[in-house]
Amino acid sequence: MENIVSTKLEKWLGEHPQEAKKIIGKVIEAASAREAARRARELTRRKGIMDIASLPGKLADCQEKDPALSEVFIVEGDSAGGSAKQGRNRINQAILPLKGKILNVEKARFDKMLSSQEIGTIITALGTGIGKDNFNIDKARYHKIIIMTDADVDGSHIRTLLLTFFFRQMPELIEKGYVYIAQPPLYKVKKGSSEIYMKDEAAFENYLVNSGAENAVLMLPNGEQIAGADLIVKISQARQVKAVINALSKKVPMKIIEQMAISNVFSGGMQSLAQAEEVARKLNNIEEEYEKGWEGEYDSNGFIFKRTLRGVPERIKVDFNLITSSDARKLEKMSAEISEFYKEPLILKSKEDEYKIVGPCSLADAIFKVGKKGISVQRYKGLGEMNAEQLWETTLDPNARSLLQVKVNHFEKAEEVFSTLMGDIVEPRREFIQNNALNVVNLDI
User: Fold this and answer.
1) How many of the other CB atoms lie within 10 Å of CB of 105?
2) Distance between CA atoms of residues 139 and 124, nearest Å
3) Burial class (CB within 10 angstroms; exposed 0-12, middle 13-18, buried 19+) of 204
């Protein structure tokens, strides 16, 4: 009987190649599914919570056995992993260092994902198992799963890959509030014998403003002086204006946008040749002698500012699309105060230096220079740059650290974002990047 079936089946498959290809494909898929299920069961199988023999060798586990009191740091690289292992509280903090970037599970088949060593390590360490029939959140060994990566483009990519894995394969961990992102400091500022850690660019800039304002005074043309809290208010306003000008200056040089704002071009009224000439005059007033020569023109398409430097012509066009943009409308609300306060150059005077202030951007830049006097600044890009003590003080100590809990408030929107940015189809990702390229604030290349 077996020979008869085999012969007839072989004949039929030979006569129907298309159907044969589909059948073989189904057989391969079924075999892959069985193999994936087998691997998932192997990763899930444990001898008991007290038995650490089955745990991955990379994992430096904690002593605490109550998951509610335990936390695991998923760390980028062996260097940071080594410092974290030395600096942690061994009682309730486990460290799991990963080597390189994990697999992008958005693009990978389930069986291929399970064959990944790094993903297998994560699954085994967490203890929950994987897959529809094998995942059990009650077996989670830690109720705080903390992603801790470097503050550079590779660290961001690894963090995104891990979030993709948890969102796609273990969404219950996110729903339960078990997944966190560590917020290690970006800066260490040393002044004298004191050291201060700052988590991000905003905190660092605020420090520079406060430090600079303590040691500077703003001199107005009428002899009036602004210092202390009043100076901080003016600097805060200048920084707000500079942020808007920064957005506009991706297409036009910052100094031109700044002087246009001071000349009331963004006030919402009618533009004119007189305004173009006024902007050109102000540009020539602030330029070094060998940089002067600006001329302003105005036509139905917008403003044109041009000059010739060392025989090379320079021509900047500011069209009505920019003048009427949403960012330009923000400047409109500040226009009156900007034009009045900066209509003549000011002087920012510190103990050592004087700075000519020709607009809000130059005020913000000058106060940062004053604030940096007498301090040393270290910017951390990699967690491996910190020693064990520093890592504990800034990122591991529950009383001092800052953690960001991962939440999904709109599942459908999150689904769309993961599919767009991490999926196989290139076109939606290219469109997303093109539409948002100009919104990037910090580009690490």
Assistant:
1) 22
2) 11
3) buried
Structural domains counted in the chain: 3
**Integer-rounded Cα radius of gyration of the chain:** 30
Instruction: For residue 268, count other CB atoms closer than 10 A to its CB.
Output: 13
Predicted local confidence at residue 112, as pLDDT: 80
Structure tokens at 444: 């690490």
- The number of C-alpha atoms within 13 Å of 3 and in the hemisphere containing its C-beta is 0
| Nearest-angstrom CA–CA distance, 313 and 307 | 6
Residue with tokens 């951007």: 361
Distant-in-sequence, close-in-space partners of 289: CB < 8 Å, separation ≥ 6: none
Residue type, position 198, single letter: M
Are 441 and 435 in contact, with CB atoms under 8 Å apart?
Answer: no
Residue whose pair of structure tokens reads 């034009």 in the numeric block:
339
Determine the Cα–Cα distance for residues 331 and 316; give it in Å rounded to an integer: 20
- What phi, psi does 357 have (nearest 5°)? -110, 115
300 token code pair: 């139905």
Scan for tokens 């529809």, then name that residue: 132
| 251, 256, 258, 261: CA torsion to nearest 10 | -100
CA 133 to CA 123: how far, in whole Å? 14
- Whether residue 389 is found in the same domain as residue 347: no
Q: What's the CA gap between 52 and 338, in Å, rounded?
A: 66
CA atoms of 35 and 1, how far apart (whole Å): 30
Give residue-wise pLDDT tens across range 328-354.
888 888 887 888 899 888 999 998 889
**Token pair for residue 21?**
């290809």
- As annotated, the active-site residues are 76, 150, 152, 154
Per the domain annotation, does 278 fall within a domain?
yes
- Summarize the confidence of residues 27-49 as an average pLDDT: 55
Domain span holding position 102 = 55-179+384-408
171 lies in the same domain as 61? yes
Confirm if 326 and 229 have CB atoms less than 8 A apart. Answer: no
- Residue 435 lies inside a defined structural domain of this protein: no
The percent helix, strand, coil of the chain (3-state, each to 5) is: 50, 15, 30
Q: Give the model's pLDDT for residue 52.
A: 42
The HSE-up count of residue 65 (CA atoms within 13 Å, CB side) is: 5
pLDDT digit string (tens) for 396-442? Answer: 999 989 999 999 988 788 777 777 777 766 677 677 776 665 555 55
d(C-alpha 243, C-alpha 238), whole Å: 9
Do residue 139 and residue 237 come from a single domain? Answer: no
Q: Which token pair is 103?
A: 């697999």
Beta-bridge partners for 298: 303
